Amino acid sequence: MKRFILSLYPTTKLWVVAFVIISSMFIPGYLYQYAIFPVCLLIAMLAGKGGEFFSLFMKAIFTIIIFIFVIQGLFYPGTTVLFSWWIFTVNMEGIVYSLVLTSKIVAISSIIILFFRITKTKDFIYSLEKMGMPKKVTYVIMSTLQITPQMKELSKTIMDAQRSRGIETEGSLLIRAKSFLPILGPLVLSSVESSEERVLTLESRAFSAKVKKTNIYSIKKSKKDYWISTIFIILIILLAVRGLIL
């Protein structure tokens, strides 16, 4: 199963992502949307990416969901009051609206996180190029996807270097705030320098040349990719038709 999931062509996975996003918006309620998370977690576990998926979801999405749920639950207008204290009022309409809103965030974020956990960046970029997307656009997408892990690794290296010079980077909030500026300067300068190096590298490889490019690395679609893509395209069309009718 792990090999089956990881070997799927990137655009095949994109059709699944598109279906989940569209269905999450069209299907009423919140049970279906919340169910997307355990399904994505199960798929991630089968693909050997369960820990990465769960960790990223909890760090990036969970806090936002709780914040939105609390704010909407406390301040959304309604008539069926469940609890009231001082200026805060919790009503049934607010709870239902919070559930519906956060369920969509959970569903969409879960499938997007899963996609990037089980899809290599180079495979995704290659599939976009094969679809006819310009290389300049795919390069921008690739750079955007890679900037966060690159900045994380770079900041870790800079922090280690600052510690070796005797600068405290751990401890109370005040100590961390003081160490932020010494880290920020080298981080920005290193990012600018790496950008210049990247531009020179691209130009030396004739990135802007108006000729047909060749690829050393390639991936191909299999029969299962065509079948899965067809099924989910049909499901998306049915959802769109249902949405137009209703």
UniProtKB/TrEMBL annotation:
Domain of life: Bacteria
Places the protein is found: Membrane
Segments passing through the bilayer: 7-25, 31-48, 60-88, 94-116, 226-245
A Pfam family of this chain: CbiQ
Keyword Transmembrane among record annotations: yes
Membrane protein topology class: Multi-pass membrane protein
Keywords: Cell membrane, Membrane, Transmembrane, Transmembrane helix
KW Phosphoprotein (keyword) present: no
Coiled-coil region(s): none
InterPro entries referenced in this protein's UniProt entry, alphabetically: ABC/ECF_trnsptr_transmembrane, ECF_transporter_component
Major subcellular site: membrane
GO cellular component, one term: plasma membrane
Name of the protein in its database record: Energy-coupling factor transporter transmembrane protein EcfT
Species this protein is from: Listeria immobilis
